[in-house]
Design a protein that fits this description.
rod-shaped; about 0% strand; mainly alpha
């Protein structure tokens, strides 16, 4: 059965890895396909040929050689190089250690080692520089963290002050509302009291008007009492004059309080009536300063009546009977 590169390439690669421990080169794959198609065969022919290949016996040496290339030359060994080393070892009877030593003594290995040293020095320099930069960055980072922490603390402090200010504001608002409520209450009370004051003022004015009216009535009554007392005194005098003209005998009239000859004096009924009226007047109007019979008219009437009564009493008491009174009165 013919073999093609497109269809059997992966199988050939797997066979190389299995028997030789490496991947084949493109030329090797092409050579095997051409050989099988020319001389007849199949994939089994290729696998058998690789299994019987001398390099297959050196498979255990492939990995150490690859490691030596990586360690001393700094690269991966190519497939042709591995094949050449295995062939060289087979022809000269070299061991794996001999191959590794030859690879290490290769001039390219010296160049690789020098490159490694240069690279190491450069890496050391770069590491020192980067370490300093890292330390600087760490210091700056720590400084930034400190500034951040300080900013956070200031932010928290500002928030606390803000919350405190809000609390004080709420307290002031509450106090203001309380004060407004009290103000409104006192304004209402003030308006109520002012209304009561106006009512009381109006009532007081009414009382003043009543007092004025009562004062006028009292003065009018006092005037009428005074007029009455004058008329009564005139009537008494007229009676007394009439008694003298009739002979002056001891006669009892409604104007005499007793015998003229008894020595007790004459007390007119008008004077008695006036004192009774004066007593009632004092009792009725004793509660007011403007109506307690202290007006000028009442004071004059009281003074005159008392003087008249006193004079009459003294006159009647000083004589024997009424002759002394009449002698002085009608002299």
């Amino acid at each position: 059965m013919p073999v093609s590169i497109s269809e059997n390439r992966q199988q050939i690669v797997d066979a190389y890895k299995q028997h030789l421990g490496r991947e084949p080169q493109k030329e090797e794959i092409a050579n095997w396909v051409q050989h099988v198609n020319t001389h007849g065969g199949s994939m089994q022919t290729i696998e058998q040929g690789l299994a019987n290949h001398p390099l297959a016996k050196q498979k255990k040496n492939i990995e150490p050689i690859q490691n030596a290339y990586s360690d001393y030359l700094g690269r991966k060994a190519e497939a042709g190089e591995l094949a050449g080393w295995t062939d060289h070892a087979s022809r000269h009877g070299l061991s794996t250690d001999d191959i590794i030593r030859d690879i290490a003594l290769n001039p390219a290995a010296d160049d690789y080692r020098q490159g490694l040293r240069d690279t190491n020095e450069q890496l050391t320099t770069d590491n020192t520089r980067l370490t300093g930069e890292r330390d600087t960055a760490i210091g700056e980072r720590n400084t930034a963290r400190g500034e951040r922490d300080t900013a956070i603390g200031e932010r928290d402090t500002a928030r606390g002050e803000r919350d405190t200010a809000r609390g004080e504001r709420d307290l002031y608002l509450s106090q203001r509302n309380t004060a407004i409520g009290e103000r409104d209450y006192y304004e209402g009370q003030s308006e109520r009291n002012y209304g009561l004051y106006e009512d009381a003022l109006e009532t007081s004015q009414g009382f003043e008007n009543q007092v004025t009216d009562l004062q006028g009535q009292v003065e009018d009554r006092d005037q009428r009492l005074y007029t009455y007392e004058q008329r009564d005194a005139d009537v008494q005098l007229s009676g007394l004059r009439g008694g003298r003209s009739s002979g002056g005998s001891n006669q009892s009239t409604r104007y005499t309080g007793g015998s003229l000859a008894s020595g007790g004096g004459i007390r007119s009924s008008a004077q008695t009536n006036f004192r009774n009226e004066n007593t009632r007047s004092n009792r009725d109007y004793s509660g007011s300063g403007s109506t307690n019979n202290t007006s000028p008219v009442v004071a004059r009437m009281r003074s005159r009546n008392y003087q008249s009564a006193g004079t009459s009493s003294r006159g009647l008491a000083s004589g024997s009977g009424g002759s002394g009174y009449y002698s002085r009165r009608f002299r």
